Amino acid sequence: MPTHPLNWFGGWVLILIGFASGSLLGLFFHREEFLGGYASFRRRIIRLGHIALVALGMMNVLFGISPGPTAARWQAQAGSICFLAGGIAMPAVCFLTGWREWYRRFFLVPVALLVSAVVLILLGALP
């Protein structure tokens, strides 16, 4: 039984979306000029979004089954929410930035959520 079921379930959903988006993107990667070419910022940031979905999904699954801070502690609850929100926000900002570069200004949001999640989880683990 997961210690943090929301992160466990949400993490698997992020992984599934990451696999699906990777499959969709993979249909067009053979085209030399897809999203501006292999080295283009647009293509790299969209690839980063796809990888962030899978990687942050895995991190949420691992946190969901970790025996660390119990869900009863407020720090663990807040960290859990920040971790899942950061796992959603990071790929979203990557994909939005690939669409319109202006959205890169919002990277502070997922970074702040993920850093807050780790700090809160560590604080929740203190005796």
The residue fraction in helices comes out at over 70%
What's the number of structural domains?
A: 1
Radius of gyration: 16 Å
User: Residue-averaged pLDDT, rounded?
Assistant: 90
- Our estimate of the beta-strand percent is under 5%
Total number of beta strands = 0
Coarse shape = elongated
Helices, by number, come to: 4
Features:
single chain; 127 residues; 4 helices
Describe this structure in words.
With 127 residues, this protein is an all-alpha fold. It has one domain (5-125). It is 72% helix and 0% strand. α1 runs antiparallel to α2. It is elongated. The model has no long low-confidence stretch (mean pLDDT 90).
Summary, kept brief:
This protein has 127 residues and is an all-alpha fold. The protein has helices at 5-26, 41-65, 74-99, 108-125. It has one domain.
Task: Describe how the helices and strands are arranged.
Elements: H1 5-26, H2 41-65, H3 74-99, H4 108-125
